[in-house]
Structure formats: structure tokens, C-alpha cells
Design a protein that fits this description.
The protein contains 16 helices and 14 strands. It is α/β, with parallel strands linked by helices and 477 residues long. Strand 11 and strand 12 form a beta hairpin. 38% of the residues are buried.
């Protein structure tokens, strides 16, 4: 047997480029020859307009081995300043249970999954997604839910197109959006509406008048400023002129608040980030979408159902796939077919881990801390613009006061939501402690001792509170 010596040169050990930058010299030359050019430079000159070509030599640092590059990146990352964020707008910090982090979030058996097309070998993932659907239908009070969508903005756009498909009149082309929805949601809905000929009308849901020109509407619950409204009457008026209403709801708030289903909503959408998914600098997070059974064939995405195999044993499967691009192509109900499987599974397992009592305890504590913040601010003379709230307060300030508070907040390494009119938004979350609350108040120049949480009363009237049970299936016990 011939024994070949190992080539231990630095050049030979530099495999990062070989593994990540595609074709080698021979493959590159073969492709260049096939298209009739002699070099990459000649290809660029022919393909890229001369007016936008950079003539000078690019200034790059010397190349580095992969482990050295990672070391440098870690050193750069250590310069990041980590602040506590109370910005809200649909994203809240949360505590990821260790068992979910270790066994799902860090487990390639879960985190590599896109979607379980091969149902016969994906029963565990399908069951986890069925748990997600059950979690969503129970919390929203709706009849059915899909197995997640991309994010809250695209879910709102999907709800708009679902409503359009159900319109009674072909001339109805207006979609109402409350001015108090999250701005990123409004942006996505507006962009989606333009190419399909929908006119988005932004207005106040408390004064809006419905006409037959409208086919749908969207409201936020609680709204982007933290206010909690009962939309029951608003929805009833919409239904009189055949308008479908979508409620974009904070999923954790629905543990305490009257559900979209109880208010008569046709569709409920939102994101499930605060159910045990790291905040991740804004994404990705699994959206949810739930609706009534009569609209099941217009519901985008995937739905997991329970069936039986030929031996009569219970089996999970993807059902109603006629909506998918790969089945119906141009007749598909949606062009956004991604399901956030990993993140939906994490949210479902958060529900399993805590159960109904645990979720209620978390939601009640967040609300109680917000009541405490509200009481301390108002006693100090600040005006809070939303008297009914779940976890978010909007405080009226002059622009000078706003800048003063923000300067103090920066000293405390805190981020608030800065609004253009001088007001500030503060959203609490599962990770907020009474120590954090004292720091928040100190940013407003308040240093009084905090009363006990047990002494406080909810800001919510009885008519806004949830009376129905949820997560009664044994899986969540």
C-alpha cells in the first residue's frame, strides 16, 4: 500500500473558501468558455452597465482563517451595549423554559424542520403543530387555526385577501385599517393591497361609518398604544353590510381579555413570539391565523388534522392542502406558504409547559405590574392616555419632558417607545421585575416606594374580561 504524506501547508488547511465560495478555477473557466468570455472581469464589463461600475480597487482587509474571523467577530460583539427594551409594538421579552431551549431550540431534530410533508415519518412534529393550532383556537375563541404563518404583518395581509375572496359585491374594494394598528402591520397591508387593486382606508374605529364599498376591516387588540376596546358593537355594524373583521390580538393578553371569537370576529391574527420565543432583534417569529369553519378552504398555510390509518390507529396528517402552491399552483389561496415550524413548536410547548394556570399567572403578573406603573405615574402627576390596558401605557409628555426622560432612561440602559408627538410608550413583559419597575420610574424622576401587588385592582372592566375556559385538553395539563 502506498502511504502518502499529509500536506500540512497553510494554504491546504484553508478550507473555508473552498467550502463556502462555490466553483473552483476549472469549473469557473468551463462556465466562462460556455458563455463566450475569457474572464470574470470581461463578464462583469459586459453584464454590469459602465455607469455603475466601480473603477477603483476595493479596499479589503487581509483574508483570515475561519476561526480567526470568528474570534474577531466575537470581540466586536462584546462591544454591544445590551439595554432593556420596553418598546412593545408586538414584541415582548420572555423567559424560554430550559427544557424547551435544550430539547427543541438547540436540537437539530427540531430546528432543521421546514414543514412535515412526509406525514408518516413526522408524527411528532405534526402533533406539536396540532398542539399549536389547539392553543390558538382556545385562546382566540375561534373555530380553527392554521399551523402558523411568517409574521403578524403578512398574516394581516392574508386576512385581507381572505376577506376579499368572501366579498358579496364585486365592486367592494375598500379595506378599513384602524389607525391604532402596529405601524409595521399597516405597512405590509398597504403594500400588499396596492398591486391587487384594494384601497386601504385608515381611520378611527370608534367613528368609522361602514358602506357597501368595504369588504373587510382590521383592528388591533390591545392597540399599538396599549388601549383595550371591546369591538363587539363595531363588528356587529360591519356585519350588517357584509364586512368581515380581522382582529390582530396579543396572544398572551387573551388569557385575561374577552376573545376575538366572543366579540364576533371573523378572523384573528397575531404573533406568538411572547410564548417562549427569544425576541431576536425583531424576528423571525411564528404568526398565527384563526377563523371560522365556513372559511376553512380560504385559510392560507397548512392545517394539521387527525385521521386514522388503514389499521384504525390515530394518525396526524397535513390536511386541506388544496390551498398550496405545489398542489393548485395559480389557484392557490396564498403565495406565502411558509410555516414557522420551529417557532410554532416552541410556542406550543410553552403552552404545554405552563398550562392554563401557568399562563394565567404570567399574564396576571404582567398586568399587575402595569397597574402598579400606572398608579405610580399618575400619582406623580403624569397623564396616561390609555386608562384601560393590559401591559402597555402611553404617557403624555411635552417634547422637552420626553427628551429628559429618554436621557435618564439611557443612563439606566433602558429603551422606551418614542413617539413623534412627545409621548412615550412603555410595555412590560414576563421578564419585568419590581426592580426593573423602580428603574423605569426613576427615568421619570419618581423614587417613591412601590406598594404591594396584592393591593392593586385591575384596570379592566368586567365586560372586557375573559370568562371562558381554555387549554382544557389533557395535553396542556
Amino acid at each position: 500500500m502506498e502511504v502518502r504524506p499529509l500536506n500540512l501547508s497553510l494554504e491546504a488547511s484553508s478550507s473555508f473558501m473552498d467550502r463556502h465560495i462555490g466553483p473552483d478555477d476549472a469549473q469557473t473557466n468551463k462556465m466562462l468558455k460556455a458563455i463566450g468570455v475569457s474572464s470574470l472581469e470581461e463578464l462583469i464589463k459586459k453584464a454590469v452597465p459602465n455607469a455603475i461600475q466601480i473603477k477603483r480597487k476595493l479596499s479589503f482587509p487581509d483574508p483570515a482563517e475561519e476561526h480567526l474571523a470568528l474570534q474577531e467577530l466575537k470581540q466586536m460583539a462584546q462591544e454591544n451595549q445590551v439595554y432593556r427594551s420596553y418598546i412593545g409594538m408586538g414584541y415582548s421579552n420572555c423567559i424560554v423554559p430550559g427544557v424547551i431551549s435544550r430539547n427543541i431550540f438547540e436540537n437539530p431534530g427540531w430546528y432543521t424542520q421546514y414543514t412535515p410533508y412526509q406525514a408518516e415519518i413526522a408524527q411528532g412534529r405534526l402533533e406539536a403543530l396540532l398542539n399549536f393550532q389547539t392553543l390558538i383556537t382556545d385562546l382566540t375563541g375561534m373555530e380553527m387555526a392554521n399551523a402558523s404563518l411568517l409574521d403578524e404583518g403578512t398574516a394581516a395581509a392574508e386576512a385581507m385577501t381572505l376577506s376579499l375572496a368572501q366579498r358579496k359585491s364585486e365592486t367592494a374594494n375598500k379595506f378599513f385599517v384602524a389607525h391604532s394598528v402596529h405601524p409595521q402591520t399597516l405597512a405590509v397591508v398597504t403594500q400588499r393591497a396596492e398591486p391587487i387593486g384594494i384601497e386601504v382606508v385608515v381611520g378611527d374605529p370608534t367613528t368609522h361609518l361602514w358602506t357597501e364599498e368595504f369588504f373587510g376591516g382590521l383592528v388591533q387588540y390591545p392597540d399599538t398604544y396599549g388601549s383595550v376596546f371591546d369591538y363587539t358593537e363595531f363588528i356587529q355594524k360591519a356585519h350588517k353590510v357584509n364586512v368581515l373583521i380581522t382582529v390582530a390580538a396579543d396572544i398572551l393578553s387573551l388569557v385575561l381579555l374577552k376573545t376575538p371569537g366572543e366579540m364576533g370576529a371573523d378572523v384573528a391574527i397575531g404573533n406568538t413570539q411572547r410564548l417562549g420565543v427569544p425576541i431576536g432583534f425583531g424576528g423571525p417569529h411564528a404568526a398565527y391565523m384563526a377563523t371560522r369553519l365556513e372559511y376553512q378552504r380560504r385559510l392560507p398555510g397548512r392545517i394539521v388534522g387527525v385521521s386514522k390509518d388503514r389499521d384504525g390507529r390515530k394518525a396526524m396528517r397535513l390536511t386541506l392542502q388544496t390551498r398550496e402552491q405545489h398542489i393548485r399552483r395559480d389557484k392557490a389561496t396564498s403565495n406565502i406558504c411558509t410555516a414557522q415550524v420551529l417557532l410554532a413548536v416552541m410556542a406550543s410547548m410553552y403552552g404545554v409547559y405552563h398550562g392554563p394556570k401557568g399562563l394565567k399567572k404570567i399574564a396576571t403578573r404582567i398586568h399587575s405590574l402595569t397597574v402598579l406603573l400606572h398608579r405610580s405615574l399618575t400619582q406623580a402627576g403624569f397623564k396616561v392616555l390609555n386608562p384601560r390596558f393590559f401591559d402597555t401605557l402611553t404617557i403624555q409628555l411635552t417634547k422637552e419632558q420626553q427628551q429628559k426622560v429618554l436621557r435618564e432612561a439611557e443612563k439606566n440602559r433602558i429603551n422606551f417607545r418614542k413617539l413623534e408627538d412627545g409621548t412615550l410608550g412603555v410595555s412590560l413583559d414576563e421578564t419585568t421585575t419590581e426592580t426593573d419597575l423602580s428603574l423605569i420610574l426613576s427615568s421619570f424622576g419618581i423614587s417613591t416606594a412601590l406598594p404591594s401587588l396584592s393591593e392593586l385592582k385591575s384596570s379592566l372592566s368586567h365586560s372586557l374580561l375573559r370568562n371562558s375556559s381554555f387549554l382544557t385538553h389533557p395535553t396542556f395539563t
